[in-house]
Amino acid sequence: MAFKPARVIFEQDALKYPLGEKLYRFFRDKGTDVSFAASHNRVSAIPGRTRSEKYFEAKRTLVVGVRRTTAFETCKPSAHFQLPLATSCPGKCEYCYLLTNLGKKPYVRIYVNIEEILSAARGYIEDRKPQVTVFEGAATSDPVPVEPYTGALARAVEFFGGQEYGRFRFVTKFTEVDTLLDVPHNGHTRFRFSINTPEVIRRFEHATPPLAERLAAAWKVAAAGYPLGFLVAPIILYDGWRDSYRDLFKTAAAGLNGKVYDLTFEFITHRFTKRAKGTILEVFPSTRLDLDEEARAFKFGQFGYGKYVYPKELFSDAKIYFEGLAGEYFPGSKVEYFV
Ligand code: SF4
Question: What are the protein's UniProt keywords (predicted)?
Fold first, then answer.
């Protein structure tokens, strides 16, 4: 499922970097629609009349830019800082938090100044040592679909392989992992896959690979010696959720063959804000996501806006159930969090 953009927009300055220049020649020679913008933050040449049309066109648009801010955002609960290697992704998951976060700019962005970004990461590591600093490479994107164009993940994995006090992690739903298998990771990168029940994937995770392909990629990564992780998110507590998620664990464990020594789980239950609900309904007017505020509990968030989460009792049931599944099907695995 390689990402083939319908159009590629270059920030002028990106051509000053070897990767930007290389990509410009590559897309021009392929006959892809190539144009320029003054900044990767202000791209207006994407067609579409409605919000929904604009969204789908943006997801077919690759913007090649220079990441100027090298101040990194924090990234709880999975890491200390975000490592911004890309923004957005060609997937079209209905619940994606980027739908709200990126607002009118959901186009796929890559950055050509990878060495500058990694050099900034080195600064953060130096500041905190001897504490180990962990960076999340998928906070604002799924970085795997654009990897064939950038090589940024491979470079980051190699960089962190050489860092005594730095660790890297990223999560993906995509499966183009072959170029990462031989990178000297030194066990410093945790390679995580986002998985869900086939029903959730089919209904809500458009333009992403099916479960079987994600699991096959996960086993390749584990065989290459990477610490492995599974992110189960969003956990959707629909009718029959217990059996469906048990099947998911059963399927995953069946492919394991006892080969994984270092495995973590992260669990995130489905939640939404009022603003996210509005955006989802605009982009996916016939969504079947459960966005009924009445059936949820309201929880005040960090920045003054609240979110709708599963009621306390259901949440606690689910927590016990999922932690039980992890222990039953993957003894020795570690649950990092359940939120
Ligand atoms: Fe969002 Fe991840 Fe889906 Fe991409 S794959 S749309 S980043 S949830």
Answer: Lyase
Residues 6+ apart with CB under 8 A from 198: 210, 211
What is the distance of C-alpha 285 from the center of its chain? 24
Take atom 8 of ligand 1 and give the residue whose Cα is closest. 96
- The structural domains of the chain, with segments of one domain joined by +, span 7-338
CA dihedral for 211, 86, 304, 99, sign (positive or negative): negative
Q: Which residue has the tokens 């699991």?
A: 215
Residue whose CA lies nearest to ligand 1 atom number 1: 96
CATH 3.80.30.30 fits 7-338, yes or no: yes
* CA gap 85, 112 in Å, rounded: 9
Atom of ligand 1 nearest to the CA of 88: 7
Q: Whose CA is nearest to atom 5 of ligand 1?
A: 91
How many angstroms separate the CA atoms of 179 and 229, rounded?
19
In the structure encoding, which two tokens stand for residue 242, read together? 């217990």
* Site to substitute for ligand 1 among 55, 56, 82, 93, most atoms within 8 A of C-beta: 93
Binding pocket residue ranges, ligand 1, CB within 6 Å: 89, 91-93, 96, 98, 141-142, 173, 208
Compute, in angstroms, the gap from residue 107 CA to the centroid of ligand 1.
12
- Could you report how far apart the first and last alpha carbons of the chain are, in Å? 31
Residue 165 CB burial class (10 angstroms; 0-12, 13-18, ≥19): middle
ipTM greater than 0.95, yes or no? Answer: yes
Residues 281-338 pLDDT 10s: 999 999 999 999 999 999 987 666 799 999 999 999 999 999 999 999 999 999 999 9
Reported as a single tens digit per residue, the pLDDT across 190-223 is 999 999 999 999 999 999 999 999 999 999 999 9
